[in-house]
C-alpha cells in the first residue's frame, strides 16, 4: 500500500473543484466484490444505473457511460457527431473550454473560438448573442456544432445553456449543441431535454461524488441521427454498439464494475436528498463562500453575479501576491487542498470547491483554513470572511424551498 504523507490526524480537506470528497457510503458500496460483467446480477446493476442517471441529466434519451475520465467523453461527443474538417463554434470561457478546443484541433476539426480577448474573457460566461450573430452569417451552414462549457471549473463561471439554445434557434441554424457539464452535473441545475442539448458531456468525480473514472454522453435523437453519418474515426467511443448492449444492462467491453456500484449508491443519495435540494444546498454554500471572499476584501474571479458558479469560487489575489504560494502554506499548515489558477490565471487566483459531499461545517473549515493561510502569507485582509460566512449561514434556513426555474 502506498503511504500518502498526509496530516496524521483528522481528514484531509479536499476542497478542489474535483475530484471532490467521496462519501463513506459510496466507498463502502465500491468495496463489494467485483462480479461477472456478463452475469445476471450485472445486467440488473447496469439497468439501474443507466436508468437512474437519466434523472440526473433530466433526459428520456440514452446516456452513455464510459469507463474513462471526462476528457474521453469530450472526444466521444465530437467523434460521434462530426466529420473531418467540420467547423465547430466554441466559446472561450476558461481553461477547460480551451482544452476542448485543442482537442477539436487535434481531431481534425476546424474550431472557431469566440470570446472576449485576454484574461478578461475568463471572467464571463458565454455570450449567446455573439453565437447568434455568428450563426446568422453562416448561411451555408458550415458550422456543424456549437460547443460550450456549462460550469467553467477553471474560473467559477457558469453559462446560460438555454440562452445558447435560443440563439441557435433564433438564427434558424441546424448546428448541434454540445455541452460540457463535467463539473456542473448534480451540483448546478441542468436540463438536457428541456434546454435542447444534443450531447451533454459529464464525469464522475465532481458533483456525483465518485472517484475519477466514469464519464458520460447524454444524447438527443438528433445527435444519434448525426452519428449515423459522422465521418470522424471512432471505435471504443462509438455509441451504436454501446446503446445496443445497454438495452439489457451490458457493455461491449468490461465496464468499471466497482465504480458502477458507487454510481448506484450516489444516485440513491442524490435522488434521496432531491435534486432541487442538492442545487439549493450548493447555491447557499456558494453564497456563503462569496461573502467570505468579499469580507476579506478580495475579488471574485467571476465578474458577472448572474452567472456565479454554485460549484466553486475563484479568489483573485492582490497584485504581487503569488496565489500558489498561498495555497502551499494552506496545504502544508492545514492539510487543505485548494484548486490552482490554470492557464491565463495561473498564480493569480485560487479556487475553493464547495461541491458534492459538502455541508456548512465543511465549508466553514475550508474558509477558516483560507483565512489563516492568507494571514500567515501576509496577504492584507480587510475583515473576517469566516465571520461573514457564519453570519449568513446562521441567518438563512438550510431547508430547501422549491427551486425557481433558472433557465
Ligand atoms: C474536470 C473537467 C474536465 C476534465 O475531466 P477529466 O475527468 O479530468 O478528464 C473537463 N471539463 C470540465 C469543465 C471539467 O471540470
TrEMBL record:
Q: Which cofactor does it need?
A: pyridoxal 5'-phosphate
Tell me, which GO biological process terms does this entry list? glycine biosynthetic process, by transamination of glyoxylate
Pfam families, alphabetically?
Answer: Aminotran_5
**Where does the record place the Aminotransferase class V domain?**
50-338
Q: Does the keyword Transferase apply?
A: yes
**Which positions carry N6-(pyridoxal phosphate)lysine?**
206
* SUPFAM superfamilies (alphabetical): PLP-dependent transferases
Binding-site residues for substrate, renumbered to this chain: 351
Q: Name one GO molecular function term.
A: L-serine-pyruvate transaminase activity
Keyword entries, A-Z: Aminotransferase, Pyridoxal phosphate, Transferase
PANTHER family for this protein? ALANINE--GLYOXYLATE AMINOTRANSFERASE, AMINOTRANSFERASE CLASS V
Concerning its family, UniProt says: Belongs to the class-V pyridoxal-phosphate-dependent aminotransferase family.
What name does this protein carry? Answer: Serine--glyoxylate aminotransferase
Amino acid at each position: 500500500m502506498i503511504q500518502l504523507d498526509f496530516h496524521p490526524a483528522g481528514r484531509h480537506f479536499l476542497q478542489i473543484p474535483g475530484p471532490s470528497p467521496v462519501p463513506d457510503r459510496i466507498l463502502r458500496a465500491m468495496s463489494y466484490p467485483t462480479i461477472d460483467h456478463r452475469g445476471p446480477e450485472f445486467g440488473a446493476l447496469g439497468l439501474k444505473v443507466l436508468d437512474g442517471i437519466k434523472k440526473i441529466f433530466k433526459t428520456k434519451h440514452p446516456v452513455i457511460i464510459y469507463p474513462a475520465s471526462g476528457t474521453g467523453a469530450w472526444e466521444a461527443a465530437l467523434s460521434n457527431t462530426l466529420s473531418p474538417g467540420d467547423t465547430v463554434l466554441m466559446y472561450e470561457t476558461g481553461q477547460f473550454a480551451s482544452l476542448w478546443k485543442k482537442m477539436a484541433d487535434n481531431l481534425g476539426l476546424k474550431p472557431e473560438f469566440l470570446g472576449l480577448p485576454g484574461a478578461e474573457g475568463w471572467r464571463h460566461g458565454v455570450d449567446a448573442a455573439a453565437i447568434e450573430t455568428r450563426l446568422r452569417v453562416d448561411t451555408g451552414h458550415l458550422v456543424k456544432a456549437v460547443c460550450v462549457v456549462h460550469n467553467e471549473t477553471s474560473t467559477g463561471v457558469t453559462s446560460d445553456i438555454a440562452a445558447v439554445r435560443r440563439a441557435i434557434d433564433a438564427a434558424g441554424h441546424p448546428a448541434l449543441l454540445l455541452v460540457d457539464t463535467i463539473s456542473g452535473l448534480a451540483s448546478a441545475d441542468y436540463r438536457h431535454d428541456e434546454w435542447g442539448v444534443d450531447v451533454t458531456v459529464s464525469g464522475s468525480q465532481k458533483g456525483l461524488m465518485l472517484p475519477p473514472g466514469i464519464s458520460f454522453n447524454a444524447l438527443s435523437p438528433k445527435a444519434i441521427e448525426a452519428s449515423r453519418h459522422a465521418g470522424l474515426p471512432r471505435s471504443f467511443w462509438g455509441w451504436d454498439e454501446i446503446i445496443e448492449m445497454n438495452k439489457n444492462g451490458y457493455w461491449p467491453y468490461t465496464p468499471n464494475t466497482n465504480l458502477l456500484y458507487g454510481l448506484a449508491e450516489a444516485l440513491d443519495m442524490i435522488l434521496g436528498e432531491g435534486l432541487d435540494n442538492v442545487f439549493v444546498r450548493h447555491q447557499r454554500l456558494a453564497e456563503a463562500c462569496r461573502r467570505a471572499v468579499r469580507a476579506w476584501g478580495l475579488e471574485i474571479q467571476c465578474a458577472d453575479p448572474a452567472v456565479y458558479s454554485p460549484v466553486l469560487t475563484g479568489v483573485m489575489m492582490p497584485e504581487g501576491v503569488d496565489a500558489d504560494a498561498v495555497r502551499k502554506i494552506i496545504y502544508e499548515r492545514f492539510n487543505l487542498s485548494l484548486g490552482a489558477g490554470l492557464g491565463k490565471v495561473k498564480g493569480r487566483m485560487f479556487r475553493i470547491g464547495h461541491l458534492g459531499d459538502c455541508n456548512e461545517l465543511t465549508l466553514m473549515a475550508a474558509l477558516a483554513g483560507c483565512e489563516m493561510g492568507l494571514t500567515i502569507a501576509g496577504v492584507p485582509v480587510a475583515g473576517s470572511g469566516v465571520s461573514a460566512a457564519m453570519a449568513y449561514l446562521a441567518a438563512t434556513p438550510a431547508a430547501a424551498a422549491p427551486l425557481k426555474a433558472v433557465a
